[in-house]
Amino acid sequence: MSEPRTSPEVCGMGHSMKRKEDPRFIRGRGNYVDDIQLPGMLHMDIVRSPFAHAKIKSINAEKALKIPGVLAVITGETLAKYNLHWMPTLMSDTQMVLPTEKVMYQAQEVAAVIATDRYVAADGVEAVEVDYEPLPVVVDPFKALAPSAPVLRTDKKDKKDNRIFHWQAGDRAATDKAFADADVVVAQDMYLPRIHVASIETCGCVADFDRVTGKLTVYMTTQAPHAVRTVFALVAGHVGLSEEKIRIVSPDIGGGFGGKVPVYPGYVIAVAASVVIGKPVKWVEDRMENLQADSFARDYWIHAEDGTMTALRIKTVADHGYADAAANPSKFPAGLFSICTGSYALQHAFAEVDGVYTNKPPGGIAYRCSFRVTEAVHCIERITDVLAQELKMDPAELRMKNFIPPASFPYKSALGWEYDSGNYPAALRKAMDMVGYEALRKEQAEKRARGELMGIGISSFTEIVGAGPSKQFDILGLKMFDSCEIRVHPTGKALARFGTKSQGQGHETTYAQIVAEELGIPAAHVQVEEGDTDTAPYGLGTYASRSTPTAGAAGALAARKVREKAKKIAAHLLECSPDDLVWEPGKFSVKGAPSRSKTIQEIALAAYTNHPQGMEAGLEATSYYDPPNLTFPFGSYIAVVDIDRGTGQVKVRRFVAVDDCGNIINPMIVDGQIHGGLAMGLAPALLEEISYDDDGNITGGSFMDYLVPTAMETPNWETGKTVTPSPHHPFGAKGVGESATVGAPPAIVNAVVDALAHVGVRHVDIPVTPERVWRLLKEKGLAE
Description:
By secondary structure, the protein is α+β, with helices and mostly antiparallel strands.
């Protein structure tokens, strides 16, 4: 955007204001779930299955109950008495809380131990004896679809196979004809392995049921407090917990990235225990539980075909594990491959997706854009480079030839989505200029002649964010609007409450800056609150880069409602018509007489002391914003890598990221979001993977073998911006929190393939580990 309109003292949009929330964090004064201590609080730990598929013949808790301090052992049979052994998921499927007949994946919850101390509860878990009878295991989604495969969801009596859904979009006939007419057609199989959120804080809760008032308060690590409250009401309504008696409090969260949207069984068990026992119950999972049993993403097998960039065909099998998190194909799967038109002006596209149950833990969460864009962008950017290689064309040139022209926006994609705005050539050109693209290509040729391996990879992507248009999106029927309530106090200070929930994005700062921009109240004097369902207006939470596009917009519109009332009060104070007033940030002035003015602080005091007769006192407003469309941020990334021929080690020498997220609220926070997202994009490209053997045993279930990037592996990110405001958003913003995780992996993989393309390498699946690269080098005679 242009230069900030407000002064540094007001610190509205465009100012790099330091984060308001940081002082408490850097002093160690954050308030996380595990910091909560309540009188008489008990602790819970969970017995987990060592098998991926097995009947439960018996559960013997006698030894556990003899341990001093162990008060109860809860099983599926216990919960079945209250009809709490199954629960709805946020994606309209059902999931076991605790099993009554069999386990379906390794590390599944089997029983819970309630004790006076966390370590006593752990001792109780070790003492619980479970007699299992192993059953056949299916971890391969293709084998799960075979007619001979065992049907895993035996709870669904009409279920005859393991297919969750089959979904397709686009014009198959027109796409097939385009392929038949194409001069060049390329195809590529790809696999995006299962990865994990691995946020700093694991999941947990403190459930506190008050028998006197009948009110349940749950402090929990959730990104969507209101939606969770509704889920709890649906699950436990039959035992007397109605929604007005349920309070969800989401305090500070140490990272979420989508992994803290689902309602995990541990939450429900803790609530049930507190209701039955009548005391607070705390459950906080350890790191291995977190890695092994929740927050999984991706696990997509993709077959892509590209016909000279005029048509695209995709067939995908998505392995969601046993408990599906994507069983609402009328909504989110459509978003998944909407972006396969990418930044390219495809004439025709057709996509089909199968979701499959296997004996893996629940998968399919929207891990920082996974499940709707990350996989699709990886697909389109990889198949684009495959086509460029086939055509012997520079990948940058191929992209430039096929970008949607800026004048064509708003642009209706081949799969029906309307892109709001964009200037894709400008973003790629800027990235090429920043990295010195032509000079790098010359350097690459010189190094290749000397036997050195250097690659340059491009990723030009379009995001699809801001889940909120009610005509397209809902959770359990709840339309995905979001909300803000603003109250301006008599002294001109403000309280703004939102229906979202920050997990480190800086909402307390950026939301305050939005209000400051609209009202002229200094951002330092705007208190932002989220995460308490007793005080915040109903909202659908924070994920899918929806905070700024939805709740930020609600904040701006609520502030404008406040400003409209303030205008009437100012007219009263200045003894003129409201039509005679002009606004500049922080005050109303009489047209032609700028000395006659009233500041927002003076108006706020008058709202409580000298408002017009017949007008309600106070200065406050609420907005529930239902966006007319999604927003479509975009970017162009260029990675430069060097490959060690002796070890297969890939070193990212340079990485340039040019993003366009529309108008920017806080440039410093945007850069922080991009830097963090780039690190999270580097991770699956080179390091992270969770896999399973044929018996369903996990590899990657601890930080010993699930490798997250450190400062040693992370390069110096070079960032740039272009600004293309969204025409339908109240202040032209688009969202940026997920862009970097979308664009980074294919840029890095494209660079690796580019380094090896001269010896016939066309594709490498991620993660591009040294072993995988070294085997390729050995196969091609390049290993030293």
